[in-house]
TrEMBL record:
UniProt entry keywords in alphabetical sequence: Transferase
Residues annotated as domain Glycosyl transferase family: 171-305
Protein name (database record): Glycosyl transferase, group 1
Pfam families documented for this protein: Glyco_transf_4 (PF13439), Glycos_transf_1 (PF00534)
Length: 349
């Protein structure tokens, strides 16, 4: 098939550091190419891919100090794809509601994966006003705030099978991976690790919008037993996660998916996560980790992680969360959309 993948321009594909959406777009794009499909990736010019790259902007917007209006390049992105739409069998957007109005007015079938939270009050009216789009959720729980939206499938994320692998090393700390922000609750992670008598390492970035939260709420809590090691790249994650007794994910928000959970599983590392959002769909309680609802439960779970088998956790990852499985699921959707008279119809869930 001739497939267009349309990524946000905020980060490169794949991102240099943090960036869940662009990382997943990369995994999907490369897997589709490996399966023999003709793929064009619309993304920033510093992206790296085996697909044809249509570089809409020279570099990732987050790394471009000269950019002031980040909406302008995204308008360019939509127009660029529109002009080339006739070249493809299907267009796959990863850009929220942006493509709805323009691409409902052309003939090439398109689908949009929603990667973010959907419980923001403004999203309901926006989706109500837009033409019908074929939408894909990344967890069933993600859909709940938009029950009337045209979700045609849920496709969970996947990682390349050998991107992250277990390493032979002692597991002598607890891990926190991602962003320092209120909804990720690093404060809970620090308290949980201390109550369990374990060291905590936070491999996380601090976005500009969260600097005050970090300075006033988290930095004073750090110490020799709870250290911030900063943002880490893909090549460092296997070593970091393989050295952890568990990944703590004490979230306080409706997590749409949570890529860090399957990254930990790929390394045979158990996940201890709050029962929010996608967590019950990703973590098999008592198999790949423990689902908890309080700090006391999380401390107790840390006492039990030695009961879980790293090899079984890794096997579960291979069965459920590889990029090949993700790509196959998307291809089934693409093929359905590309059939005559199907691409512009509402599909059955």
């Amino acid at each position: 098939m001739k497939i267009a993948q349309i990524a946000p321009l905020t980060e490169a594909v794949p991102p240099k550091f943090y960036g869940g959406t662009e990382r997943v777009v990369s995994f999907l794009t490369e897997e589709l190419v490996a399966m023999g499909h003709d793929v064009t990736l619309f993304a920033s010019g510093d992206s790296v891919t085996a697909a044809e790259l249509d570089a809409v902007w020279p570099r990732a917007l987050r790394l471009d100090p000269g950019i002031r209006d980040t909406l302008a390049p995204h308008f360019m992105l939509m127009e660029r794809v529109y002009r080339r739409a006739h070249e493809f069998d299907v267009l796959h957007f990863h850009n929220d509601y942006w493509p709805a109005s323009l691409f409902a007015r052309q003939r090439t079938p398109f689908v949009t994966t929603l990667h973010g939270r959907l419980d923001l009050p403004e999203l309901g009216p926006v989706h109500d006003e837009l033409p019908v789009m074929n939408l894909i959720s990344i967890s069933d729980s993600q859909r709940q705030p938009l029950p009337e939206a045209n979700f045609v499938a849920t496709v969970q994320h996947g990682l390349p099978k050998d991107l992250l692998t277990p390493r032979e090393r002692s597991r002598d700390y607890v891990a926190f991976l991602g962003r320092i922000c209120p909804e990720k609750r690093p404060d809970r992670a620090i308290r949980i690790a201390r109550a369990a008598g374990m060291d905590l390492r936070l491999a996380a970035k601090v976005d500009r919008v969260d600097e005050e939260y970090f300075e006033t709420g988290i930095k004073p809590m750090l110490g020799p037993d709870a250290c911030l090691i900063g943002e880490i790249g893909e090549g460092e994650k296997s070593e970091f996660l393989s050295g952890a007794r568990a990944l703590l994910m004490p979230i306080d928000w409706p997590e749409p998916f949570g890529l860090v959970m399957i990254e930990a599983m790929a390394c045979g590392t158990p996940v201890i996560a709050w029962r929010h959002g996608s967590v019950p769909e990703i973590v098999e309680d008592g198999v790949t980790g423990f689902i908890v609802e309080s700090e006391a439960e999380a401390v107790a779970a840390l006492d039990r992680v030695h009961q879980l088998s790293p090899s079984r956790i890794r096997a579960t990852f291979e069965a459920r969360f590889t990029a090949r499985r993700m790509a196959e699921n998307y291809l089934e959707i693409y093929e359905t959309l590309a059939r005559p008279r199907v691409g512009r119809l509402r599909l059955a869930v």
